[in-house]
């Protein structure tokens, strides 16, 4: 994983973690607008070994980073936020664990991250 996440603009697709994981910045966050990021994970990767992904640099850019589920609860035990690398690391995902919506708040700026299994081609 990179030590710092790349800067991204809306619509930018980032590959900043496990192979096959795609991170897309859908909407940049501001004081009045919740940001949006989508993450797609290959099915085999999620089920077998877990995955990791970095966030765009402007997500969680402040000092006071809090991560929760969409309803404000704690993250499931199989996924964690790594502040030094501004990334998420997931171990083997349980059946039914995805999709998962995570909210990252940093100094009052919120971004919603939807993590899901990539559709099969």
Describe this structure in words.
With 121 residues, the chain is mostly beta strands. The chain has a single domain (13-117), classed as Immunoglobulin-like. The chain is 5% helix and 40% strand. The protein contains one helix and nine strands. A six-stranded mixed β-sheet has the order 1-2-3-9-8-5. It starts with 12 loop residues before the first strand and ends with a strand. The relative contact order is 0.26.
> What is the highest CATH level, the class?
Mainly Beta
Strand content: 35-45%
The string of secondary-structure elements, in order, is EEEHEEEEEE
Mean pLDDT: 85
Rg for CA atoms: 13 Å
Strand element count: 9
In the predicted model, the low-confidence regions spanning at least 5 consecutive residues are 1-9
Q: Strands across the major sheet, in which order?
A: 1-2-3-9-8-5
Number of helices: 1
Report helical residue fraction.
under 10%
Quaternary assembly: single chain
Structural class: mainly beta
Keywords:
Immunoglobulin-like; mainly beta; 1 helix; disordered N terminus; globular; 121 residues; 9 strands
List the helices and strands and how they pair.
Layout: E1 13-14, E2 22-27, E3 35-41, H1 43-48, E4 51-54, E5 65-69, E6 79-82, E7 87-90, E8 100-106, E9 109-117
Parallel strand pairs: 3-9
Antiparallel strand pairs: 1-2, 2-3, 4-7, 5-8, 6-7, 8-9
């Amino acid at each position: 994983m990179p030590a710092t996440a790349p800067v991204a603009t809306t619509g930018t697709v980032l590959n900043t973690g496990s192979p096959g994981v795609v991170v897309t910045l859908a909407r940049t966050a501001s004081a009045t607008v919740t940001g949006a990021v989508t993450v797609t994970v290959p099915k085999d990767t999620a089920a077998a070994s877990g995955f990791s992904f970095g966030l765009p640099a402007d997500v969680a850019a402040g000092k006071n980073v809090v991560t929760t589920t969409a309803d404000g609860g704690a993250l499931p035990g199989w996924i964690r936020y790594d502040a030094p690398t501004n990334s998420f690391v997931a171990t083997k995902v349980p059946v039914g664990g995805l999709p998962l919506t995570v909210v990252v708040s940093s100094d009052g700026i919120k971004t919603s991250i939807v993590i899901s299994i990539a559709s099969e081609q």
